[in-house]
Amino acid sequence: MLGRLVSEKMARVAEYKKRKSRYDLQSVVASKADELIANGWERTPGRGQKARLKRPKSCDELLENDFWTILYLFGYPNLNSGGKLTVELSQHEGKSIAKQIDVLAFDDETVVVAECRACETRSKRSLRKDISEFEANKKAIVNALKPYTGKDGGQKFLWLFVTRNIEWNATDKALAHQHNIRIVNETDLRYFSEIAKRLGPAGRYQFHATYLATTRVDALRDVTVPAIRTKIGGCQAYFFVAPAKKLLPISYVNHRDLRDPEAAPSYQRLITRSRLQAVAKFIHDGGYFANAIIVNLKNTARFDLAAPQTEDGTTMGTLTLPSDYKSVWVIDGQHRLYGYAELAEDHPSHRVPVIAFEKLANEEEGRLFKTINSQQKMVSPGLLDELRGEQDLHSEDRQRQSRAIAARIIEQLRSDIGGPFEDRFKSADLPDGPERTLTITSIINAITSSGLIGRMRSKPTRFIQGPLSGDNPTQTINSAASVLSDYFDLIRQSNIVRWDAGKAGMLCTNVAVEAYIRLLGELCPFIHKETGNDPRNLTETELLAEVARYIEPILEIIRTATDHAFSQRFKVPFGSGGPTRYFHRLADIVKAKFPNFAPAGYEEFVKESEEAITKLADQRVRIIQEQVPAFIVSRLKNAYDGEKYLQQAIKNKEILEGAFKKQLAADVDDQGPLETYIDFIDFRKIVETKENWPKFSDALSIRLPEEAHAARYLKWFDEVNRIRRIPAHPFGKKYKERDIEVLESVFDSLSGSGVISPDA
């Protein structure tokens, strides 16, 4: 065998860190950097004299690394290292005939041998030759691996073909099935990735259950436990205590299966790794659980009587545990059971109390789960609402069904390895954080309101399919998830740093993502109108190519705009408008290059927005004019004694004379204090004097965006003085973007320093 295996923990961790990166990295002397950049490398921040460069890994290598990572997180103790592994199959005329294995992993029970194939974009590709070659080499591969896998090759082999962006044809699928070669596509990868991250080593049992269902677990043959047989609610059930290590290999948790969105009942939430680790620590420190886990034995169990049945129908005896993978479905207590998988291999085995129903129907499992978690209040009402929502996937109420479909789309997006939304969503299990800036409810609302997966029409009331709708919920979920993932990857790849910045980047936020989803919803009918191509008749690749053409001006801004310029373009003026305003900023950019683009309500929104912004700007100008002079006067009174404080504070006699003349010109009955006749711009002159500046530098020094360095930042006085003429003489005048930017900056600074009341 050529190539290395990693079987030590530290070696596995080191290999994982290498494979986790989406880029090849290298440091070179500056003289060589330009040549490498011309060949596809790009600069990345780094320290030292050498240039640090990166280049995206190939799609094949990324796929191999992603699947390898899943097996690593599943806790496989032996994995290939340093890329592909080559095994010698035979010798012919003195020459070695070898076979490359893309991903290899094995434990005491199983050996995983995986071939990986990927395309850059979604493509049709025949794999008949590859499948036939894989099948022909199976026996030789088993023999070649025997010296390394142990147990005389007695493990069960899982032969997998892992693909990404490849559309399998029916003939190839049938051939793979015929040869017991399992297909793992990108949807399966998303599911296993989520399981691996959530369950860790416990996920290996789910993995085994998926591909080895009904297959005998050799180590569990003829395992028996004392038990009581009775009936609960008319259903046959057993009470017993069993070692956790004997239950784990045959157990299965019926999670919301990302690969088969229509699977029923999908009542279980995905497990939280942190809770598993907490359970393991509790057990390790001597804790135990007295309450039973509840399971369903999928087949009739063998039960040997030890005593006659009592009058109430209870019988003592010996129960033979099932010995097949996926034969025990966990209804309640998944965290307790799988917590044992986090313990070290040499940790003493613990016994777990169990109530096992026999051959419950799937629907009854779901009802029992809901009863336990609603009546006993073990799960929050919000979680139960989510569970009820998931049951709407086939609801006759199309609006409820659409929300269920949108929820499943998000499940796929958030578990897409290396995708734009991996670990970006907050949830009941994943709290807020720098990376998790998105909320599930907000994005569900955006998807359903965009029309991408359909919308209700009135007169007559009917449901109109959207550009990403399929013939059934599964097709809609898979199609929409794929398109949205690729669409947002265009956005992310335009400026990964900005996307990863979360809220600060103003790109991967609820407001921005909702706006971009709405933009896609508006672009689809526009593409149909402009090109005659119905998005529903285009492949995902063709649709994304059309969309990319129209959003290129936006992508260019994302790529090239400075952080300040980007913020000012997409920041919501005065904090109002949210996703709708962000969307119309995007629409402005598209419309500038494609004038025919006019989303519904666009003109009305622009007009209403201008009116709302004008009203807010007028209000802020008035507040600044009123409260800034009042603040200055208050501080001057505190700094100088007596009624003549103005004469002491103001060295510029022209200011005093001008104010005095205005006071004298006023009606005697309406005359106010002298300070009320000082012009707004003259207060700057008062503040900036050598004597007065120390009294105001903490509150009135406001540096405007892009203002050059200065000793005193008081230019804002001049800007506000200029802007105030707009509401004073509104005919034919309106606020410009720069005016709004200045007002926001000044108002926020004055509010923060206490010059302006927070309630203003």
Computed over alpha carbons, the radius of gyration is 34 Å
- Sequence stretches where pLDDT stays below 50 over 5 or more residues: 257-265, 376-389
Mean pLDDT figure: 83
Write down the domain tally: 4
Order of the strands making up the biggest sheet = 13-17-14-18-12-11-16-15
* Terminal residue distance: 75 Å
The major pleated sheet works out as: 8 strands, mixed
Q: Give the number of DSSP strands.
A: 22
Topology (elements, then pairings):
Elements: E1 2-6, H1 9-20, E2 23-28, H2 30-38, E3 42-43, E4 51-56, H3 59-73, E5 78-92, E6 95-101, E7 103-106, E8 110-124, H4 128-149, E9 156-167, H5 170-178, E10 182-184, H6 186-199, H7 203-212, E11 224-232, E12 235-243, H8 244-247, E13 251-252, H9 273-284, E14 293-297, E15 302-305, E16 315-320, E17 328-332, H10 334-339, E18 351-358, H11 362-375, H12 381-390, H13 398-414, E19 425-426, E20 438-439, H14 440-450, E21 455-457, E22 462-464, H15 473-494, H16 496-500, H17 510-531, H18 540-560, H19 563-570, H20 578-593, H21 602-639, H22 645-649, H23 653-665, H24 680-687, H25 693-700, H26 715-723, H27 725-728, H28 737-752
Parallel strand pairs: 8-9, 9-10, 13-17, 14-18, 19-20
Antiparallel strand pairs: 1-5, 2-4, 3-4, 5-6, 5-7, 7-8, 11-12, 11-16, 12-18, 14-17, 15-16, 21-22
Helix pairs in contact: 1-3, 3-6, 6-7, 13-14, 13-15, 14-17, 15-18, 17-18, 17-20, 18-20, 21-28, 26-28
